[in-house]
Design goal:
single chain, alpha+beta, Outer membrane efflux proteins (OEP), 4 strands, disordered N terminus
């Protein structure tokens, strides 16, 4: 036990000053430093670039090129001849009609961006919920260590009291043995809870990016829906999972339009100009200018175009079914989360009442023991009940904090705190 306490002290010295001691600060620190969120943010920025890329197909394109060449010709014994020339050209094209390909690709890009934004928001909410779980779990672990430490001190007092009574011939050896056994058990449980606290500290540090010491109580969550119907409506409108599924359905529908457009004609306006001559020539440079309209119509592709269209339709059907599945899942998730909040609130209120009653009973039993009305084992049993009440309250506080934020996450309302 002494080694574990020394390790805890060393960890606290390494941690240094603690900046995040509230849930809001912990969430903010996690969003600013979590590498997974940073990676998703970069992927979102990359996805947003698909929209200007899709629009670029409808804009004019311009290119220039230049070159120089030298050639040597042998004449079969006669002196050879050489030629050195240069040339340059410029060309421009503008799509006039693409059978809806640009509009389809633009729709697909917008849907992809909406889906990426929903996925990013979902990742943010998952991180915030994980931080809440780690924060509340760390507070529970700290409360458990404190409760077991108090129990250990109380049991040490009971052991000394039983030993004194045994030496005075008032108590039996059984009373002393019972106090010693409970004291040894309490030491073991305290060591185990200190190990669990060290693990909770590491989980918190992994998510938040910095260590924590004593944490402030978790406040009641703001913005909770007032009724189950309101929660269901919010989930149907803004749940990242459902928004992402709907965006995927829109992208799949645009892919069908793009596959049709690939089978239609394309009309573009093209213009070009070229200039060239031989090096050292006294003649004027040769020039060539052109302008015209190009029409291309795919006639036969071995069935590939038709196959891609059928494939796109099948994927569109699958995306529509996935939206329906997501709607069912969201309804279940929101309903379960709503019920969990009610359960957690009732459990927290009950745990507070249990602790108040256990503390009152423990004070009464110890006073009755001093006047000889209670045996040692009765005090030990009441101490165990008091410890159970403290642990139950710590667990209920953790569950309530998590349940409220889980409901916000289910409805898509768990956002970065301000």
């Amino acid at each position: 036990m002494r080694k574990l306490l020394l390790a805890a002290a060393a960890w606290a010295a390494f941690a240094g000053p603690v900046a995040a001691d509230t849930l809001t600060e912990a969430m903010t620190a996690a969003l600013e430093s979590n590498p997974s969120i940073e990676a998703r943010r970069s992927r979102l920025e990359a996805t947003r670039e698909t929209l200007p890329q899709a629009r670029a197909a409808a804009l004019p394109s311009l290119s220039v090129s230049a070159g120089a060449s030298a050639s040597q010709r042998d004449g079969g014994g006669a002196p050879g001849s050489s030629n050195e020339s240069w040339s340059g050209s410029a060309s421009a094209s503008q799509l006039l009609f693409g059978s809806g390909a640009v509009a389809a690709s633009t729709r697909q890009a917008r849907a992809g961006i909406a889906g990426a934004e929903a996925d990013y928001n979902g990742a943010v909410q998952t991180l915030l919920l994980d931080v809440t779980t780690a924060y509340a779990g760390l507070r529970e672990a700290q409360a458990i260590v404190a409760a077991r430490q108090r129990t250990l001190e109380n049991l040490e007092t009971q052991r000394r009291f039983a030993e004194a009574r045994f030496n005075a011939g008032v108590a039996t050896r059984t009373d002393l043995a019972q106090a010693q056994a409970r004291l040894a058990q309490a030491r073991t449980q305290l060591i185990q809870s200190q190990g669990a606290l060290a693990g909770a500290n590491e989980t918190y540090m992994r998510l938040v990016g910095r260590p924590a010491a004593t944490l402030e109580p978790v406040p009641a969550a703001a913005g909770l829906p007032a009724s189950l119907d309101e929660a269901l409506r919010a989930g149907a409108e803004q749940s990242p999972t459902l928004v992402s599924a709907r965006a995927a359905a829109l992208s799949a529908d645009a892919a069908v339009a793009a596959s049709f457009a690939a089978r239609g004609p394309r009309v573009s306006l093209e213009a070009g100009s070229s200039l060239g001559n031989d090096f050292g020539s006294s003649l004027s440079n040769s020039t060539s200018d052109s302008v015209g309209v190009r029409v291309s119509i795919p006639l036969f592709s071995g069935g590939a175009a038709s196959s891609r269209t059928r494939q796109a339709r099948a994927l569109r059907d699958a995306a529509g079914l996935e939206v329906a599945a997501a709607e069912r899942q969201i309804r279940e998730t929101v309903t379960t989360a709503w019920t969990s909040v009610d359960t957690a609130r009732a459990a927290y209120a009950s745990a507070r009442e249990q602790l108040e009653a256990a503390e009152l009973a423990y004070r009464g039993v110890t006073l009755e023991q001093e006047v000889g009305l209670r045996a040692t084992v009765e005090v030990l049993d009441q101490e165990a009940d008091l410890l159970a009440a403290r642990l139950a309250l710590a667990a209920a506080e953790r569950e309530l904090a998590i349940a409220e934020r889980r409901l916000l996450a289910a409805t898509g309302a768990l956002t970065q705190p301000r």
